[in-house]
Amino acid sequence: MKKGLFLIITGLIVGLLAGIMIYINISNKIPSNPSDLVGNTAGNLNSGGLFCEADGVVFFANPYDQNKLYSMTPDCADIRCISDDSVCYINAAGKYVYYIRDNGSFNDDSSLFRGDMYGLARCKFDGSSLHTLVAGYCTDLAISGDTLIYNANRNSKAVTCTIDIRGGEISVINDYNISHASVFNGSLFYSGASNSHSIYNMDISDGLSSLYMTGNTYMANYVDNNLYYIDLDNNYALTKVDLSTNLRTVISRDRCILYNVYNGVVYYQAENNGSHALYRMKTDGSDRTEIIEGDITTISCTSQYTFFQMYGSTTLYRVPTFGEPTVQTLYIQPQE
Description:
The protein is 11% helix and 50% strand.
């Protein structure tokens, strides 16, 4: 009788432990993303990926706390520090945040002793389950489905690399660096940066590029079946091409320096006769409105607010993405 009871209790304990292990494995398993999923908008990634919105959460690099990774609701409430890493090129997919670790930009001795100055990291939305996927300096992170694409240096040579969202083997798909901001359905649109400034289309699976459109362009972005770019031969005019009709439209003749297209509006930094300012307009070029004068260095759009910073300053400003463009200063208290 005692032996039978012992076997029953042992079996229950083994079953319980097995159930716990199965639960842990399932809870930590990273599911596949839809093949057309992207981790952030092209406009946000062009500004260094300092803000990223996903599933009702805004992830951002707090400029008042060494660009550490924070989260908040779209109305700038429930603010939390979720990682002590200084971050950029934030992407989010499937309840996970992926980012470039850039602790070397700040005098942080603790990160030096941890040996994690640079790299590509992943954590859950609450900051838990932090995992380094790639060690060493890298930049320009983007997500295409289950693939992370980023720039790195190997043996003092610029390369483009990919790795699965779960980690594993790193693939070098190109021996040069390009902007990875504009991902669409497994392809990458980019303006050439060396001999040709035409627009190219790269297959992310193998790194093969083909000429998509000739021109002297900069910062080409695919957004809602339109190709936006800065036309270097036309006084840096912001231009778009409707890919259904091939109709080309100059939507702003201002000298454009930086822009962000988001849900039917465009925020852009322009220079006119030596004067710099941030503007907003619709994607057809109408309703052009000056937001604020000054040298804008980052433009990050989310569903409720668009955030920006000025040259040489860590001050963070916000303006409602839609509606009355009232500029506000936003201070975010560093958290322990």
